[in-house]
Amino acid sequence: MAGDRLPIVFKSNIWGAALTAIACALCVWAGIAIVNGDYYSRGAHFGPIHLSSEATGWFLLAVGIPLGLVAAMAAVRGCPNLTLTEQGLTLSRCFGGAVTIAWSELAHVTIRSMRVRRGMVRVVYLVTKDGRDISVGPVRGKAEEIAETIRHVAGTMGVR
User: Fold this and answer.
1) Do residues 124 and 107 make contact, with C-beta atoms less than 8 angstroms apart?
2) Cα separations (Å) of 25 from 38, 60, 61, 72, 94?
3) Measured on CA atoms in the order 133, 137, 142, 147, is the torsion positive or negative?
4) Which of 8, 34, 41, 128 has its CA 20 to 30 A from that of 140?
5) What secondary structure letter does DSSP report for 159?
6) Which pLDDT tens digits describe the chain residue by residue (160 residues)?
7) Beta-strand (E) ranges in the chain?
């Protein structure tokens, strides 16, 4: 339990975003090297599709630059994060405005499991009384602990 003192803040994992930004910087570097001819490449095969070395370099740039900028912004801004206050829950995301849910609007908290390549990922969802499901996103902490903290604070705020 995170404790009874409010506000309680669950921050994002900055290291995941920083590592993604570094990996994207390496992709951009490799793409520039391939496009400029500084790196010997015979191209790439994706099943029956063959890309020339220049097309491979441009592909690395087209993927690496936007994804790297998003990851760098997430690392610098520390988003997403979830804040529990006396008024309710506030979910701050990297893009768009913050989502605020008053304690009186919260119906319940659920945890859903999703299968990914490395195994299972458990995601916390906030369900409002009007039926909206809002994903908390990749904040640091175990899903069970986050959900239990939200339930505990909601209980102390008189929400049933």
Assistant:
1) no
2) 17, 10, 9, 10, 20
3) negative
4) 128
5) -
6) 445 688 888 888 788 888 889 999 999 999 998 888 876 667 677 788 887 888 888 999 999 999 999 888 888 888 888 899 999 999 888 887 888 999 999 999 988 888 877 777 788 899 999 989 988 877 777 888 988 999 999 888 876 6
7) 8-10, 44-46, 49-51, 81-84, 88-92, 99-102, 106-116, 119-128, 133-135
